[in-house]
Amino acid sequence: MQTSAPPELPYYPRPELVEQVRVVLSSGLSDAITMFAARRMGKTEFVQRDLAPAAEAWGWHFCYVDLWRRRDDPEEGLVEALEEHVRGQGWASRLRRPDSVKAKAGASGSGIEAEWKSKGEPPELLTRLRKAMKALVGRGDRVVLLAIDEFQTLAAGKHEDFVAAFRAAMLELRPSLKLFFTGSSRDALNSMFRRRKAPLLDSAMSLPLPLLDDAFATDRAEVYSRMTGRETDPAKLAEVFERVGHVPKYLNLIVLHMVVAASNDPWVGFERWREQEGEVRLSAQWNGLKPLDKVIVEHLSLGGGDLFSKAFAAKANQRLKQSAVTPPKVQTAVRRLINEDILAPSGETGVYEVEDRAFKIYVEWLHEQGNCTCPPRK
Description:
By secondary structure, this protein is an alpha/beta fold. It is about 50% helix and about 10% strand.
């Protein structure tokens, strides 16, 4: 028998953030915004459920592209998504091929140019990119807001000139084209906007995604009450929200666990959520780590400091019963963990953190049970 999917809790809107976006993009000071937030913090929901309807209400046309779906080939994914959107709007006739176009791709005075031609590979892809972007804007009589999710995936793209070509088209089509870039990798997103061949940083304004506060927990308590007819303590729910790192997705799941368990205690929901996350997702992730990776993740999960210090090397050597842990080996492991979306740079040079709060909580729990590389806390 097929089980039904759990109910989805009502979306929690962010009207103040929407207004910030409108002010920035309407001011004439910037035609592009970048927004960084770790995964699961709600940036995609904000773009789709807040920004998209708001843009249409402003009289703008909205187009959304998620590069994470084609992270194996983000350039092709972006072009295909733009072409699909254009055709879906009935604008296929706009996708006519130009013979050759040249536009400046760098900042003023940089002398950097990108050229599109009608033949060749990758020039063929660059031609399709420019065509699709021009088709999206059309006659320029209506502002278009193009939102590109996980834009940093282009940092590892196959074609060096692609971002420069995107930049050239962006400059050519402004102010009719507005851009909203999101990213979940600080380092990769920053590198996209500092590339020497495609300096986007000078024309894009950074806008943070604020952490949701206790007001979100209070709202979720009200949602729980409407769903069950019972009351729960908003203050306790706020404590749980703090425990899961203010990740809205996790608090929503905890509330659903409370509903299923017929309990109004947020900590009961938390324990059920932690248990399910561990069984379904996190245990396999932990068991798949290399020994040194486990030591690093555990060290950071428990509040440990510098991974490249002599103290950490000594600790790792003791845990692994060897004497071969060196800073270069730690750096290799850190890169691997970043690529697997387990660690993320904290913003300070050489400082890293466990990106997924659920994984951090799971490793803390393993440590308390004595199942990590270190003895349990006393």
